[in-house]
Q: What sequence folds into this?
């Protein structure tokens, strides 16, 4: 349901709007909120405050110029008039222009200033909020709302989890802003004192921080495997047989690279869980901190999985377009010509047929399972399933998908691993290389299924510690609601 | 996690349920809410109110008949008894039956009536709420909850942004209903006086208002390009060479039409942003309102993009099924026959092979990028990324996708634009027509990247105005949190 | 925007963190919350409470050991010290260790205990919360938060609809915990007295309860149709013609099975709505309860539809990879050989070409429509559309998709239903079997469109009852906001 504020109707309130305001104003308890600034953010903020039942007054250096941009119920006046009427003022001007507001210092004494500004780049120096607090020592400065865009204010917090990060040196000012958040439909998160404002100001400037390493890994693996396959499939025939097969570069070489990247990355999703389990088994407790690299690896499993899924889907599309190409058609017709010339009536080879039928069918099933995993990664779907269901999909179905993808690769390889001609320049076929990580993961997981090992691990995860007691039932604290932590295999 | 109210367990509370009610009733501060009406909405509303801690009493003309439909804790009695007990009453009966409640006027005096009714079609006359207020002048009528379906009440506000639009002439009544909203987990939006009730009643009757123009544009472009291709590829061979190729109509003609529509619509997504930028550069300020048509075009960019994505995906599926068809197989076998008869051993044409390998590969990459754009348009995903990340994907990756799609079309065309035989009936090949909008967009975007132009535009967007000052650093108000407005290129 | 608590910065607060705490502590109104237990859940809960403005003190048997695991602002001390300071205590230890807390009974008298424990398996006996209440008769035990995972606490209620199910015998304790929920950004749902705690404890242990029957139906239909097709396409040629075509099992037999399952299941989505409509027409009222089996069938329509969609997509992928297989290539080359030997220059058969072009095109369009239905089933997308729009997509577009899928199957069958050779072992071709359910559904829907029938049904759904009155306009209660219930056809 689009927020009604986005409809053109709202711009044509006219006289009726004034009557609406009267009804609100006549209620003296309606708090007055001031906004300094007249840009998009101010306009959206003013509308949202008005829809939440506040009386809004906007202050501008040239009020007459901007009156037309605001709805009729909102008073647009001089900056001094606005801050005099209001108890809480949003400072929605560029940080480089904060100094121009100095003349309002007397009028702002004892009032609450909300700094909504952002910087252009990640900063290490004093934050805009701290500088503003230096300008207005007699006002309580609260940092907040800088992570909310004008668009979100306009459409409303459709995702009710719209968190607003606040910090201030004054608890009272923070509480006032918190109740204002609640009325507008946002959820305030208290970040502490004004010293946290730098952290808050740097937040909207991050560009997918949790995706950088997974994307880097994907690209590195892609480049490595592309060069490997290029060496084996294009350069080597050129050097040894003088065959020029550069036409393979756009599609065929890419189509051997993508599944390699996908399978290796899928193994990288399940590997850290195994490391974590083995570390816990070796130290006999779950209370030791994991090494930093393992911690970071565990947090990026979802991104690794989604990159792997994207590569799998692209691999499927590239494979499906193989018969579409002119090169495939030329090859087919040439083979027909050859067969006619040789005089073979039936060129059917049972083994080749079975190999392809099997590995295609298993590959499609693996892709189907991976799609289920990808769909349950969507935020809205992940929020509708409980932890046991999530674990079933990501863990059980996930290992199923890894097993199927490995079988797909084994069937594709068939017996070529034992054919010496495949080892060009002493380089093994790509699929042999690529099968190593998933084999390690699947064997490790099998090891964890052995009864004694599984039982020991279960006890450790329920809080038992080898060093503290011989007796298995001695109590120890641990999280007790039975929901395993994210390092669960 | 499905709301427990949907489980069968809830229907079998029995004696224990009564004990639960006692515990609530013995707390005299539990407000009593009445509901007039016994349909699905009443049942779901009653359950949700009960789960939020209210005492509920339902009024019906024939209470004995409907007692079985409600849980045991909810009292089902006569209408008069219900409104006497309650302080706030939901009027959940059909609007055409509001008049039958007139006999309850004395009992409802001074109480709050919430009108949850909807109309059948978009109305211009007095709203149901206003008519109800005429029937009960001594009660405070609040319009609300009509946009919430029985299903949502039952499942709970899974998306916390479940907004409930309220309006009333009485601020006190509105506040009471607002706190009731909060307790049930909804977010109330104040729409003003009862005169807004018509707007609220028309809300759930809109049928994708923001999608109408984009879908219309898509269908118009589809019909235009289908006729154009039909003329060129089916009618013209019939007229000039007497070749009947009507079999091309279901798939081949469609498969040239869909990518044309997709590419033109993708250009239409980025064109308004360029117009907006040029308008701002020409007027030297960002404070002038855009023309209405440009405003509307800017708001429908997401819908245009998603229609374009749907056409691209269908184009991909149609292309992938080309080798599946009997016509393709017959053609292949006939070509093999011809080649055998002529005696050509190798019919390989390097240029044709390279052309197809390249444009297929580039096309798949463009589709991959477009999928990323489509996924980040999903509400739940869009809510997890900040504005800088959103702008990176929709703007940077978006232009990348447009560039790749244009390259895909250029490679597909290859050198056929210079082949006079392609200009049948003086009509240029479709791909030549289709390349015009993206070229305009890409060249315009390149122009905006020139250092002087980019610098001027950046200053304008930070609030600088050419008319007001020669000096580049003079302060002016503007939105300051650094998040660009939605007209950002 | 990832919650800042997930950033490594948070772990390095140091001295500044202490200053933050001072600012909070100096405000005496900050409530003190205690947590017994030091596992992942305790840590995440402590962080979230701190971010919401509470003062947190954690109690452990070996405080020195766990101090390093918590941020500096949180005091980690002995269990006795923690419960003495706090007014509300979260009992985050394993249920089997609740008995060890008995020594704290005096210190916990009169305080609120929140039991967040979960069980390992669905239980019928007394719940953990009831057992805890037996240990601490002088404290108020509230069951809650057991459905919230440590991960959700850490990332924040991104989906604002994060419901927390509470129950307790003490209304006052429940209210305190409810306001704590609100401050942390969750939505409390009151489940009544402590006797509901068993229900709450069993909640996170359900494994997709609403998906079991649909998935069972899908697998059963798949096995049935696979055996049927295996008998007809593999065994029968082996028996009658001694042709071994087992290579068809992985892909070709699967590719006739999947669309059969998909089409039958799509019919099963729309069938219950027709039954419901006919039942209402027959009894002349909408107030009679549906039979249990029909009620259950109506609630699983979405899951049936999504299973059907998954089968359709897999069918599409299997079909698109048919020309990729070696068997297809061998067959093609053998046919070319045959054609050369016989000497046919053009093997074009118009009817076969048209049949394939048509049914492929219609099939792709059906798949496109089904994708739209699937996308609007995503929770976040479903929440942005109102009921009229949802009904348009799921009902109107849905029947369109069913019609197209049926046409696709009819075109695929063409005239083979009338060819006696297709009836092997007296078994009709699969597509004939599969066309029965959709025909029933489409004819039933057509019957409901007849003017007299449609008018009668509309009246019944607006509340008219045949038994109660002859007059068509007599009032009766019914839900009145015009949003049809979920049994709407």
A:
């Amino acid at each position: 349901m689009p927020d009604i504020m986005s409809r053109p109707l709202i711009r044509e309130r006219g006289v009726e709007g004034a009557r609406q305001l009267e009804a609100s104003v006549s209620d003296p308890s309606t708090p007055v909120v001031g906004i300094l600034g007249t840009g998009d953010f101010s306009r959206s903020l003013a509308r949202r405050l008005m829809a939440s039942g506040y009386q809004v007054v906007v202050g501008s250096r040239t009020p007459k110029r901007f009156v037309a941009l605001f709805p009729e119920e909102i008073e647009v006046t001089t900056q001094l008039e606005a801050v005099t009427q209001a108890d809480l003022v949003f400072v929605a001007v560029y940080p480089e222009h904060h100094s121009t507001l100095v003349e309002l210092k007397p009028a702002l004494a004892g009032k609450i200033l909300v700094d909504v500004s952002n910087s252009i780049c990640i900063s290490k120096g004093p934050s805009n909020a701290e500088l503003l607090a230096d300008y207005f020592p007699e006002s309580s400065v609260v940092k907040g709302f800088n992570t909310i865009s004008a668009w979100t204010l306009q459409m409303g917090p459709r995702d009710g989890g719209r968190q607003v990060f606040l910090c201030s040196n004054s608890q009272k000012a923070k509480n006032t802003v918190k109740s204002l958040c609640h009325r507008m439909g946002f959820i305030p998160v208290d970040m502490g004192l004004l010293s946290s404002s730098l952290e808050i100001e740097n937040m909207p400037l991050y560009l997918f921080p949790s995706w950088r390493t997974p994307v880097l890994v994907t690209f590195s693996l892609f480049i490595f495997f592309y060069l490997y396959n290029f060496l084996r499939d294009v350069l080597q025939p050129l050097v040894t047989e003088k065959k020029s097969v550069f036409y393979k570069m756009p599609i065929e070489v890419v189509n051997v690279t993508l599944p390699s990247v996908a399978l290796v990355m899928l193994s990288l999703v399940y590997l850290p869980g195994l490391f974590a389990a083995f570390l816990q088994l070796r130290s006999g407790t779950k209370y030791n901190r994991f090494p930093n690299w393992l911690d970071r690896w565990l947090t990026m499993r979802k991104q690794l999985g989604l990159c792997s899924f994207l590569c799998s889907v692209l691999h499927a599309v590239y494979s499906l377009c193989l018969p579409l190409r002119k090169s495939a058609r030329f090859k087919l017709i040439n083979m027909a010509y050859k067969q006619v010339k040789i005089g073979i009536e039936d060129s059917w080879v049972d083994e080749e047929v079975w190999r392809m039928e099997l590995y295609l069918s298993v590959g499609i099933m693996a892709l189907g399972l991976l799609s289920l995993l990808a769909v349950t990664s969507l935020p809205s779907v992940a929020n509708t399933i409980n932890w046991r269901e999530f674990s079933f999909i990501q863990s059980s179905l996930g290992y199923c998908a890894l097993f199927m993808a490995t079988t797909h690769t084994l069937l594709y390889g068939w017996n070529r691993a034992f054919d010496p001609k495949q080892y060009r320049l002493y380089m093994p076929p790509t699929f042999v290389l690529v099968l190593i990580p998933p084999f390690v993961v699947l064997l490790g997981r099998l090891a964890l299924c052995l009864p004694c090992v599984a039982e020991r691990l279960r006890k450790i995860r329920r809080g038992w510690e080898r060093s503290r007691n011989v007796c298995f039932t001695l109590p120890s604290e641990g999280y007790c609601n039975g929901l395993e932590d994210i390092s669960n295999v």
Summary: Chain A has two domains: 32-205, 211-462. The mean pLDDT of chain A is 84. Residues 249-283 of chain A form the longest helix (35 residues).
